[in-house]
Amino acid sequence: MRMHQDDLAKKYVKEIKSADVWSVFRILADFVKGFDDLGDLGPTITMFGSAKAKSSSKYYKIAQKLSSMLAQRGFNIMTGGGPGIMEAANRGAVPYKDVESIGLNVDLPFEQTPNEYTTTELDFDYFFSRKVMLVKYSMAYVIFPGGYGTLDELFEALTLAQTKKITGVKIFIVGVTFYKPLMKFLEKKLYKGGMITLEDFQIINLSDDLEQIVKEIEISLVNQVAILEESGLQDTKYYKMLSEFVKDENRKKEDYCNV
After folding, report:
1. Could you read off the pLDDT tens digit of each residue along the chain, which spans 259 residues?
2. CA distance 198 to 180
3. Under a CB-based contact definition with an 8 Å cutoff, are residues 108 and 86 in contact?
4. Helical (H) or strand (E) element with 41
5. What class is the 2-18+38-210 domain?
6. What is the pTM of this model?
7. Are 174 and 59 in contact (CB under 8 A)?
8. Where are the domains of the chain?
């Protein structure tokens, strides 16, 4: 195992430091693969979190439950494809045959073992290309407790929202107790220090209320359809998929009320 890790680490050093122009083609291959295989996804939620969380842990169970709640309503679930929280999210979605449980794996010298609960699985050579796919094809991000990688993904999402590179996408953090010290740091050091605005700080939705998160995601979907209309994107495949999904959901609610 140690030898495998060392070999992969040397491989990455060689690729990064050699300035090998052939790496460009591998990068392009990552993006082409992602665009081809994920471009037809309907409403999708990306869930991030620790790869080290055990199946018996509190947040593993919460992630599985939230994923199941979203999948039951027709939302695809996308993760980094590995163990821990990622496995929990894919596991919660996979029983629902009308949705996709997507895992985007990356070649790492350690930790990244694909979980068994995906219906669609893609492998990427590079972290950054995988991260683009995780955010590009999602209409909401849910961040659970995690380490460096999870925090990287959280702040990537916050930066995209802050700079308006993504619009209407909701960012939820689950784990009030876990993330409260971080929220205090952001408020006292960044906001009160004038490094972010109040609007920037309020991008974050910190909550352990799963029902409220699902409700906010459903509201966000309607808002994103409206944003696409205002942007003149009614002819795009993505707009048509989202608007059809909203119509189906409204039709189901009307049928339920008429029973």
Report:
1. 444 556 655 665 666 565 566 677 788 888 888 888 888 888 999 999 999 999 999 999 999 999 999 999 999 999 999 999 999 999 999 999 999 999 999 876 655 678 999 999 998 888 888 999 999 889 999 999 999 999 999 999 999 999 999 888 999 999 999 999 999 999 999 999 999 999 999 999 999 999 999 999 999 999 899 988 888 989 988 888 888 888 887 766 655 455 4
2. 17
3. no
4. none
5. alpha beta
6. 0.87
7. yes
8. 2-18+38-210
